[in-house]
TrEMBL record:
Residues 12-261 form the CN hydrolase domain. The keyword Hydrolase applies. InterPro entries: C-N_Hydrolase, C-N_Hydrolase_sf, Nit1/2_C-N_Hydrolase, UPF0012_CS. SUPFAM superfamilies: Carbon-nitrogen hydrolase. The keyword Repeat does not apply. It comes from the Eukaryota. The lineage of its organism: Eukaryota, Fungi, Dikarya, Ascomycota, Saccharomycotina. This is DEBR0S4_00584g1_1. GO terms for biological process: asparagine metabolic process; glutamine metabolic process; oxaloacetate metabolic process.
Amino acid sequence: MSLIMTAIAKNIKVALLQFYAGANKAENIKKATDFATKALKQHPDLDLLVLPECFNSPYAVDQFRKYSESIPDGETTKALSQFAKEHGVNVIGGSFPELGDDGNVYNTSLSFDKTGKIVAKHRKVHLFDIDIPGKMTFKESSSLHSGNKATVFDLPGLGRFGLAICYDIRFPELAMIASRSGAGIMCYPGAFNTVTGPRFWTKFGVARAIDNQAYVILCSPARNPNGGYQAYGHSMVVDPNGDVVVEAGHNEQIVYAELDPSVEKDARTAIPLSTQRRFDIYHDVSVDAKKGAL
Ligand SMILES: O=C(O)CCC(=O)C(=O)O
């Protein structure tokens, strides 16, 4: 018996819905379902739809609370659940601002199986607090609270997924946890920007794919011609060898890919990282972490 595990159950046909959000929340939700409908019209046999980060709200720290809603009774959750159920399709629902029971606001991603059931909820763990002098300052923590767990889940018939949001991708640990738990696909709804996007977006997609010999899905909002936060776009799928399978431009569009379990199996068989790991050496990398060390 092969020791190499493949975490994808079948060929998975996926669509990445790259669109931007405007000021009207109801219109943003409708746009999401319109894009989803269009994708299914073009490819009725799709298994999975993926939406971008923060798809029902402008990406602005002073707006998140206004657009936030509770889960599962908020309008965004209901719309996505209903769409998944009506069309019998799995949905990784980008992210949107969640109003938690504790009164705090989170950047949260929900996934739905094809019966419309919520099968995963990830609250962004690492908040985007950066200051690049003269170029960009952003402080998500001024209005958002962070999540406190890594997210791994199964979509029945498709396989095991890891889920994280945007800036989370810079911390390889979340993808490692998912992969060590048997995930074969790592998905990041993410809104990189025109400063850090060109430099880092593709590299992170490729890095996480190679690290874990897993498919990586990145789904971004499109760039908004009416100003505000300028997302990088370039939604993409990267295969377990680090090859980019499909990549969008920066305008609104839908891109399609097929995830093939044999590609993952071949990658993992050819270079058998999973049987060569030395957990005796790096069983817990946090143990010796020193204050101020990377
Ligand atoms: O990591 C980056 O460069 C961008 C992250 C980001 O835009 C976000 O977390 O929303």
